[in-house]
Write a structure and sequence with these properties.
The complex is a heterodimer of chains A (134) and B (408).
Chain A lengths: L4 H8 L14 E8 L4 E10 L4 E10 L2 H14 L4 H5 L3 H8 L6 H29 L1
Helix pairs in contact in A: 1-2, 2-5, 4-5
Chain B lengths: L6 E2 L10 H7 L1 H4 L11 H21 L7 E4 L2 H15 L6 E5 L4 H12 L3 E5 L9 H7 L4 E5 L13 H11 L2 E5 L11 H4 L3 E5 L10 E5 L28 H39 L3 E3 L11 E6 L4 H7 L3 E2 L1 E2 L12 H5 L4 H5 L1 E5 L6 H20 L2 H7 L13
Parallel strand pairs in B: 1-11, 3-4, 3-5, 5-6, 6-7
Antiparallel strand pairs in B: 2-8, 7-8, 9-10, 10-13, 12-13
Helix pairs in contact in B: 1-9, 3-9, 4-5, 9-13
Classes of the chains: A alpha+beta (134), B alpha/beta (408).
Chain lengths: 134, 408
């Protein structure tokens, strides 16, 4: 597979690899994909509930080079954005930036799903919290 | 001595030409360029003589009783096509049933599928978790309409060696022909047609330190006399079994490669085997959750090491060790996005199929290369595991099978 320099760069120097505390109410965790399909992405966001801004993002990915690069780039992009802005991120932007070949587009879809899933998890936690306090 | 990068450890895909082979071939490009079918001048005679020498060299490697039993082809894909279709088309009045294995090479499987479309019936036998077929299963699958059994010597992905001699005994008893795709094993292990009870054998030049574009099919002439229909029409070369001007240069190369293998196969086998064991020991000592795919010795190709590194995807691994030429059973390395059909036939977990790497050690690998590769692989497996959510979950004691994964 001939990858673009950007994929290789992200693959060799992935940004934001790591783990946030998934029990933290300000952290949303998205776990998407399946081992049997050859890719699993876990993307975590820490949101400031006051400003709604994503202050930290971490990922871990089991998958090919473009899956790792897609999740690395996704964490880079969502940092500093509001939750609403991050919801707007489309896989096509990742495809364009990383110049992914058609056979690897599903990796970018997975990254988009991971962001959404993490945000949903965060929102669920926040809603549960509000329900507790009222 | 400094290591030359990249390092080649994909000797199941192809092997470099032995310099002795190249040397033998060179005069046939420029000086002795004649057409082996030209009967009217010295150029043709010389070419024919060179082909006869190569035929004898290949026959000797296989322990064939006559050089006449060797048909030169363009490679093993053609040899497999010719053997299977050639027997089927010749014997269609006698029967219409063929037996083969799920883990055969595509050149065998797809040939069988085409014959199915022509009306032949094909049984694709299962293999066990090590990739081996049980001779009993072959026995039970044989019918009065069976004309051919086709079983490979050693699997190109997982290195599992099939019990050919035993299967050959069964086919002999029933008067059924046995074809063996011996591409991956011939010259690497002892393989003599009479000991193996085989009737047709495919081999390829470039898996034997010879050139690409040339191969051979052994067709037994005695007890039983095998008859096949040529699949390519033309000048009636190769006793009518394979028309087309002979690739004299390539054939000379294949002959030389066969002669070297006849003389040196034990040395060669011991060399690749000791390197493979060195690599295996280092990897298994240095990495937890590593799994061997395929059978263990003595039923394993001496140069093959196919392993799965749990929690690490194969293509990412290939990228991580880009200075080493190996291959993976991962879906991501194939156009179809399907993981290896061979590993799936073994019942290997899909996750582990995605995580498999095949190392193929050969004549020109060195201990220094193995040490470099082992160190690199261990380092990169650890690096990729540090970014693998599956590894983290496994470390935390999560049963990965208990999770409802959303396949996409």
């Amino acid at each position: 597979m001939a990858y673009s320099d950007k994929v290789i760069e992200h693959y060799e120097n992935p940004r934001n690899v790591g783990t946030l505390d998934k029990e933290d109410p300000t952290v949303g965790t998205g776990l998407v994909g399946a081992p049997a399909c050859g890719d699993v992405m876990r993307l975590q966001l820490r949101v400031n509930p006051e400003t709604n801004i994503i202050e930290d993002a971490k990922f871990k990915t089991f998958g090919c080079g473009s899956a790792i690069a897609s999740s690395s780039l996704a964490t880079e992009w969502v940092k500093g954005k509001t939750v609403e802005e991050a919801m707007e991120l489309r896989n096509t932007e990742l495809v364009k930036e990383l110049n992914l070949p058609p056979v690897k587009i599903h990796c970018s879809v997975l990254a988009e799903d991971a962001i959404k899933s993490a945000i949903e998890d965060y929102r669920r936690k926040q809603a549960a919290r509000r329900a507790e306090t009222t | 001595m400094a290591l030359q990068l990249p390092i080649y450890m994909d000797n199941h895909a192809t092997t470099p030409c032995d310099p002795r082979v190249v040397e033998a071939m060179l005069p046939y490009f420029t000086h002795h360029f004649g057409n082996a079918a030209s009967r009217s001048h010295a150029f043709g005679w010389h070419a024919e003589e060179a082909v006869d020498t190569a035929r004898a060299q290949v026959a000797t490697l296989l322990g064939a009783s006559s050089p006449k039993e060797i048909v030169f082809t363009s490679g093993a894909t053609e040899s497999n096509n010719l053997a299977i279709k050639g027997v089927a088309h010749f014997s269609k009045d006698k029967g219409d049933h063929i037996i083969t294995l799920r883990t055969e090479h595509k050149a065998v499987l797809d040939t069988c599928k085409r014959l199915e479309r022509e009306g032949f019936r094909v049984t694709y036998l299962d293999v066990d978790a090590r990739g081996q077929v049980s001779p009993d299963d072959v026995k039970n699958a044989l019918t009065d309409r069976t004309i051919l059994v086709s079983v490979m010597l050693a699997n190109n992905e997982i290195g599992t060696v099939q019990p050919i001699a035993e299967i050959g005994k069964l086919t002999r008893e029933r008067g059924v022909l046995l074809h063996c795709d011996a591409v991956q094993g011939v010259g690497r292990m002892k393989f003599l047609v009479d000991e193996m009870n085989v009737d047709l054998v495919s081999l390829s030049g470039h898996k034997l330190y010879g050139p690409k574009g040339v191969g051979a099919l052994y067709v037994r002439r005695n007890k039983p006399r095998v008859r096949i229909v040529g699949e390519q029409d033309g000048g009636g070369h190769e006793r009518g079994m394979r028309s087309g001007t002979l690739n004299v240069t390539g054939i000379v190369g294949l002959g030389k490669a066969a002669a070297i293998a006849t003389d040196e196969w034990e040395k060669d086998r011991d060399h690749s085997f000791s390197l493979r064991e060195r690599l295996r020991k280092k990897l298994f000592d240095g990495i937890e959750q590593i799994h061997l795919n395929g059978a263990d010795d003595p039923w394993r190709h001496p140069g093959n090491l196919n392993v799965s590194f749990s929690f690490v995807e194969g293509e990412a691994m290939l990228m991580a060790i880009k200075d080493v030429a190996v291959s993976s059973g991962s879906a991501c390395t194939s156009a179809s996005l399907e993981p290896s059909y061979v590993l799936r036939a073994l019942g290997v977990d899909e996750e582990l199929a995605h995580s498999s790497i095949r190392f193929g050690l050969g004549r020109f690998n060195t201990e220094a290369e193995v040490d470099f590769v082992a160190e690199l692989v261990i380092r990169q497996v650890n690096r990729l595991r540090d970014m693998s959510p599956l590894y983290e979950m496994w470390k935390e004691g999560v049963d990965l099978k208990s999770i409802q994964w959303e396949a996409h």
